[in-house]
Amino acid sequence: MSANQRHDDAPVTEVVVVGGGSAGWIAACRLAAQAQRTRSGVAVTLVESARIPTVGVGEGTWPTMRNTLAKIGISETDFVRGCDAAFKQGARFAGWTDDSPGEGYYHPLNPPAGATELDLAPHWLAQSDAPEAADFATWVDFQATLCDAGLAPKSITTPEWVGQANYAYHLDAGKFATLLREHAVERLGVRHVLGDVARVEQGDGGDVTALVLADGAAIAGDLFVDCTGFAALLIGGVYAVPFRRCGDVLFADRAIALQVPYDREDAPITCHTVSTAQAAGWIWDIGLWTRRGVGHVYSSAHIGDDEAEAALRRYVGPAADSLTARRITIDGGHRERFWQNNVVAVGLSAGFIEPLEASALMLIEASMDAIADRLPRTRGAMRVAARQFNAAFTHHWARIIEFLKLHYAITKRTDTDFWRDNASPATWPDGLAERLELWRTQPPAPQDFDHAREVFSWPSYQYVLHGMRFDAHYAPIDPAAPESALARRHLARAERARAEAMQRLPRHRDLIRAVREHGLQAV
Amino acid sequence: MSGLVALDPARHETVRFDAAAAGRGRAIAQLGRGEIALAACDMPLCFAKDGGTGRFNLVALMALGGDNLFAGAGGFHATYMPQAVLLGAFRLAEGGSGLAIDPADASIGARGAALIERGAVTSLVAELRAALQRLVEDVAAARALAEALARHRLLRPWRLVLRRAEAREHALDGLYTIDEEALAALDEAAVVALHRDGSLAAAAVIAASRQQLERLRQLHDAAQPDARIVVGELRLTSEPRARLDNHVI
């Protein structure tokens, strides 16, 4: 047997995760839970520095987090209690289309009614000029109404992971990492090593063979998951995989964050992310059980740091006076490759982008779905897995950048250079420019995308396009056509769902209190 | 139960309690753990979630989308009347007589045993209070049983569909029963633990009591021969999958 053959046939049995933030512990939990479920014999070790603080990226999740937590084996009750989590039903974008008072739209997590059977967008557009016509999100689904009313997506009698409306979470990232760490070590058998990586040993062909820690201990492995954040210890430090920046498309390169306590114990908790446009960026506002997380994302080319902090403090009001702001640099972009040799980058080491659509944790989950569920059994198979992974995630990053740019590109704001520059087609990715041309005459559809499973599928594009009053002119609707009758049936069903949900669902804070006190049942 | 008032010797001199009339208007009754074997002789036993806590209560099903099928003009036609039915008109109360009554309950009226005589509560009031206290403890034990079964994932939704002759369908939602497949798949340690604390035997009786659904159907058809009913269970091979991805459809 040749040396190459031996190398290719070497089994993958030891996986080492480097870094202990959200990415590291999600990675370790997913790998160890999968190994436990399949009894594959794969051992998982997580190495983290006791000296390097975690960045704590991402306080908003996607609905995918329900799947991830269920796979890991953490109950929804433990998650809500342990992470001060709240439920999230989407995002409201205020002031993005123009800066008139009260202007805004929802990007809810429910797809439009009947989305598996028909596309309601042309039907909405055909009546959207009528007086009192509802906005797109409200017309095609009931979730925006729940958000406006401050109601939860489920009740205490709804089983865990299930909702009357689709939902994700807002969470405390620090507490999330702690919950995952305890679960990983105590329940899933992950070996936790505290230590600083002093040296990386590589074998023939450049594979990483072991991490040598400052105390001399060597941690050997067959696959290394680089979750070292911005340090990118392996993917950047060892392999120097180039970083592809996207600052020419997405201008935001700074963020300032505040943690704002509620002014009273029973203050309502908003059940969606509020993203409010500013002169040179936007402010996020998310509600947790114990506090709000509020932050200003902005372009330093268009506004100064102090001016941006002043805008954030004005937004929060007097409650901000005693609070200390935390400043964060956003170096937007991603690696040209994410999986190199036997190292795969997950989390901030793979890339970072402004949190406009809460994609950070989702990308970690999606990465681990690909890695843990399809862990290569041999070093030879890893080459194929790496090629597939790199192709898929290069595609995902491009689509995410395009989708985020969409929020800026079709603005009607012209009040500052920031918005004028964003609306300039010269700053649009080619794919977005091409699709926007198409979408002037027909609504976004699955066929407009290369992959069957896009991270942002066509309903997301419809919510943003029509929420921002994109100038579209679709084929006329014949009210007597069979599809019009089908549309009316789906709309009537959505109206019944709206009425029932409004009547039955509890206030958001009341649900969280009940979950914390009594827990959710598994069925 | 919104009409509860404190039993007041001055106001309720003429109020009497007719145990045989209890149960009218009650479709389900909460059960104590000690009642399982008794109630299972007549009624399907299952679980329903408490609206305020989401926790499971053990209940006896006594109707098929209408009135209580055991409670008739001639009394309660079952070998056993659940304590929550018998005591449905009463609640423990602080102070005074220590008892609250629901004057609108079918068992409260001009017939039956006196609660007040010569301006003072009768010994029946003390008996009712003691029975209520026992029921509270027994219901708590039933909740503990339900929690143990839920913890071992031994409960599943029990969805009943009622079809009437004129083809109208009516679904009974919100009920749960024993998942016998999960029961059969329990590991040995869980089987031993559940057997030792009596949960396994209770689960078997509760599962078997589902057959009393046929008894309810017969009672229904006997009472309404012109509106016969078919009762079916809607079995799902798996729970409806939640929409987990952002908009994956």
TrEMBL record, chain A:
<dbReference type="InterPro" id="IPR050816">
    <property type="entry name" value="Flavin-dep_Halogenase_NPB"/>
</dbReference>
<protein>
    <submittedName>
        <fullName>Tryptophan 7-halogenase</fullName>
    </submittedName>
</protein>
<dbReference type="InterPro" id="IPR036188">
    <property type="entry name" value="FAD/NAD-bd_sf"/>
</dbReference>
<dbReference type="InterPro" id="IPR006905">
    <property type="entry name" value="Flavin_halogenase"/>
</dbReference>
<dbReference type="Pfam" id="PF04820">
    <property type="entry name" value="Trp_halogenase"/>
</dbReference>
<dbReference type="InterPro" id="IPR033856">
    <property type="entry name" value="Trp_halogen"/>
</dbReference>
UniProtKB/TrEMBL annotation, chain B:
<dbReference type="InterPro" id="IPR010836">
    <property type="entry name" value="SapC"/>
</dbReference>
<dbReference type="Pfam" id="PF07277">
    <property type="entry name" value="SapC"/>
</dbReference>
<protein>
    <submittedName>
        <fullName>SapC family protein</fullName>
    </submittedName>
</protein>
